[in-house]
Amino acid sequence: MKNCLDFRREKLADPRRLSPEALAHLNECAACRGFAVEINENEAHLAAALDVPVPEGLAERIVLRRKSGTPNVAKASPRLWAMAATVVLTFAFGFQQWRDFSSQEYARLAIEHVMHEPESFTTTRSADPELFRRVMHTFGGEMQASLGKVRYMKLCPVPEGTGWHIVFETEEGKLATLILIPAKRMKTDSEQAQVGGWNAVARPGGQGFYAVITDSPETLGKVDELVRQRVRWRG
After folding, report:
1. Whole-angstrom Cα distance, residue 218 to residue 216?
2. Nearest to 180 by CA among 208, 222, 152
3. pTM for this one?
4. What is the pLDDT of residues 94-137, one digit of tens each?
């Protein structure tokens, strides 16, 4: 029998198909039925709006250009802007857990977001080193050296704007996730958490804070040090 986290992760991964275990949980859990209704409504809105193919990473690139002031943004057609907005809004439920929190639980919440997006470790998306450099610069991080091979980047709505979900492979072949969240200010220099076999550290940086998430404490220590050595944060 699935728990709520397992059900929601499966629903987010493939909204149109659920396993028998997930369906059984859905019948017994009113909260997850409400979650499923919201997901289905977002899917319907997306299907209605996106009646032409959308280039991968369109939303991320348009929002990044708007934030960084890159010229020629205005040349994007109104329809492309509308589609980009729809794509961004559709992913909003993936960050619902950030909506109302006020306690200092940034590291734990970063892990929960990673757990809601298991496809980030098996999918290649917007893996452009130059785009990653621009993302970091816009957020307030100046790259002093490469962190490794970028495999996945996605723009995600958060309460004060948009955050970034980034997966990269280190020079040692280890996968790590970097979450960039604007506007939220930490009251401490760092915070760590362990949830479901995942390990995370959150630190102030740039426009708000960032979190590093890995699958082992040893890897976390190495990647955390790597980020601290190779990124100089403004602000």
Report:
1. 5
2. 208
3. 0.62
4. 445 555 444 558 898 888 888 888 888 888 887 888 889 988 99
